From TrEMBL:
Its cofactor is [4Fe-4S] cluster; cob(II)alamin. Its main location: cytoplasm. This is Epoxyqueuosine reductase. It comes from Echinicola jeungdonensis. Cob(II)alamin binds at residues 59, 132, 153, 156, 167, 215, 240-241. [4Fe-4S] cluster 2 binds at residues 197, 213, 240, 243. Catalyzes the conversion of epoxyqueuosine (oQ) to queuosine (Q), which is a hypermodified base found in the wobble positions of tRNA(Asp), tRNA(Asn), tRNA(His) and tRNA(Tyr). The keyword Endoplasmic reticulum does not apply. The active site is at 132 (proton donor). It comes from the Bacteria. It is found in: Cytoplasm. TRNA binds at residues 222, 298. [4Fe-4S] cluster 1 binds at residues 187, 190, 193, 247.
């Protein structure tokens, strides 16, 4: 069968499974990205995220993740919520992506179905599915597949829906006609994300010092939070959406249609006092299937204590 046909089958299945966009790239070594990644690591922008320095070659070469890989399929899945955490009940905030069920499970299930449907339609196809779960340069592949460009906050921006979405990939040994890469940067002279970041984590256009990012502090860092950052978190206790909330492209965000991403009903009722006195029982109930489990109760309490006014 022809690569054009394979590409149309991939896009048809993506649409059936609720993905908003599907882009296709040829699986090859990302030569342009190698020096950028090396420079980022050399500046220790990964902070205590030691895993970022592992598997350097695999990050840049999809054929090292899937033997015989010919195609990288990049997918976008919306998570912009219909309903946000109500203001007035509590000052504490969590990133919108963590409102519902952990996206790793939700999207991984969809990708498994994707591969099954692909085999039914095409025949024997070997490949692997990725959701923020392996050394793969998601944003760079998505840009190469024409799904958007990397904004000044380093996130992928899409002209039709902004940036409140998850990226996922299939690396497969099926040849499919690639899409044209996105070569234009539509941020222009706008610097709203850089200006709004309270910890100055965006060190230059498209480059984030991960070790200064509020998401890093509240999720990845397991040590005590540095006192130099006291008063700079703007009440974010898990993750941070500041650079996305101020981005003009996110005026195009539309609510998602994924029931599993709906705001947990108990979250709507939490007050400052409830958060400050949260027990293991409440934490386990509210965040049973949530990405917030990554911090564990101990980490969440540490973050809340750090936010409390002395």
């Amino acid at each position: 069968m022809h690569p054009d046909h394979h590409a149309s089958v991939l896009k048809k299945i993506a649409k059936e499974l609720g993905f908003d966009f599907c882009g296709i790239s040829q699986a090859e070594f990302m030569e342009e990205e190698a020096p950028k990644l090396e420079a980022w690591l050399n500046k220790n922008y990964q902070g205590k995220m030691g895993y970022m320095a592992n598997h350097f070659d695999k990050r840049l070469d999809p054929t090292k993740l899937v033997e015989g890989a010919k195609t990288v399929v990049s997918l976008i899945y919306n998570y912009y919520p219909k309903q946000k955490l109500p203001e007035g009940k509590s000052d504490y905030k969590i990133a919108k992506y963590a409102y519902g069920k952990d996206y790793h499970f939700v999207i991984k299930d969809k990708l498994k179905t994707f591969l099954t449907l692909l085999k039914e339609e095409i025949g024997d196809v070997e490949g692997r599915a990725f959701v923020d779960s392996a050394p793969i340069m998601e944003r760079q592949w998505a840009q190469k597949a024409g799904l958007g460009w990397q904004g000044k906050n380093s996130l992928l921006l899409n002209r039709k829906m902004g940036s409140f979405f998850f990226l996922a990939e299939l690396i497969i040994d099926l040849e499919a006609t690639p899409d044209a890469p996105m070569t234009k940067d539509y941020c222009g002279t706008c610097t709203r994300c850089i200006d709004a970041c309270p910890t100055d984590a965006i060190v230059q256009a498209g480059v984030v010092d991960g070790s200064k990012c509020i998401s890093y502090f509240t999720i990845e860092l397991k040590d005590e939070l540095p006192q130099s950052m006291k008063g700079k978190f703007e009440n974010w206790m898990f993750g941070c959406d500041i650079c996305q909330d101020v981005c003009p492209w996110n005026r195009f965000s539309q609510p998602h249609h994924e029931p599993q991403f709906e705001l947990h009903p108990d979250l709507k009722e939490m007050t400052n006092k409830d958060w400050e006195e949260i027990t293991q029982e409440t934490f386990s109930k509210v965040f049973q299937k949530s990405a917030v489990k990554r911090t564990k109760l101990k980490g969440l309490k540490r973050n809340i204590n750090f936010l409390k006014k002395d």
